[in-house]
Write a structure and sequence with these properties.
Elements: E1 9-13, H1 18-29, E2 33-38, H2 41-51, E3 56-60, H3 66-76, E4 84-87, H4 102-130, E5 133-137, H5 150-169, E6 176-181, E7 185-186, H6 199-203, E8 207-208, H7 209-222, E9 226-228, H8 231-240, H9 245-256
Parallel strand pairs: 1-2, 1-4, 2-3, 4-5, 5-6, 6-9, 7-8
Helix pairs in contact: 1-7, 3-4, 4-5
């Protein structure tokens, strides 16, 4: 079943599994035209087959490759502007900072920070004429620096900072910019790491990918800059600017066992 050419368009990165896949299903259910990107070609193919829509354009790419991102967005937006970019692609490693190889820290920054910048920069010319929305996937680990997640946490602080900056810069251009800050989500990316930090037991893994996808979809209308998910995380977010650094660090030490 196809979608009328007047349907709004969304480009989703990291769409082969987890939150990205859930976002693809949510936007497809609302009748949007989809551009889906992931470096996992087989996983991406499975999502396209599952959806069975003629209005999907898949792109096998690594968001750390800026030129590949530029070409994919140029192709997807060749005939009409872009209504929404969901900047979701990300990778994770859990463990003590010094125990993880330097190369892995660099990979996390390449995908989670540079990839977000590549996609935002490439998408802007297509978002502007549509007065569209850039939605970045941040994390609750962008509220307090998170032990056992040092590079991942740092990458999500960068995403949060970029979101705030672009929300100010692009407002006059008619482009809204926001992020979503979920705590732990039950996804294939998280599954291999659940025994690697006490934080999983302390905080729990209560969100599903579908829950985050619903929050992402709400951002297309509500367009609030920061969107922390779950009551406790909204409370942490509200208290972050009022809580002294020593108390934040003590809280994280208690939760993580450090």
């Amino acid at each position: 079943m196809g979608v009328a050419c007047s349907a709004p368009s969304v480009f989703i990165t990291g769409a082969a599994s987890g939150i990205g896949r859930a976002c693809a299903l949510r936007f497809a259910r609302a009748g949007w035209r989809l551009g889906l990107a992931d470096r996992d070609g087989e996983g991406l193919k499975a999502v396209v087959t599952e959806l069975g829509l003629a209005s999907i354009q898949p792109y096998v790419l690594d968001v750390s490759d800026g030129e590949a991102v530029r070409q994919a967005l140029a192709g997807f937006c060749a005939e009409r502007p872009l209504d929404v970019l969901v900047n979701n692609a990300g990778i994770l490693s859990v463990g003590k900072f010094s125990a993880l190889p330097l190369q892995r820290h660099q990979q996390i920054i390449d995908v989670n920070v540079k990839g977000v910048i590549h996609c935002a920069h490439a998408a802007f010319p297509y978002l502007r004429p549509a007065r569209g929305v850039l939605i970045n996937m941040s994390s609750a680990s962008a509220i307090f620096g998170t032990p056992d997640f040092a590079s991942y946490s740092a990458s999500k602080f960068a995403v949060r900072g970029l979101t705030e900056a672009l929300a100010s810069e692009w407002r006059s251009e008619g482009v809204a910019v926001c992020d979503v800050l979920p705590p732990f989500v039950d996804t294939p990316m998280l599954a291999p790491h659940r025994g690697s930090s006490r934080l999983f037991a302390s905080m729990g893994v209560r969100l599903r990918a579908q829950d985050v996808a619903e929050a992402v979809f709400r951002c297309t209308q509500r367009r609030r800059v920061h969107n922390p998910l779950t009551g406790p995380i909204r409370l942490f977010y509200s208290l972050a600017s009022l809580t002294p650094a020593w108390l934040q660090q003590r809280l994280m030490r208690v939760l993580s066992g450090h």
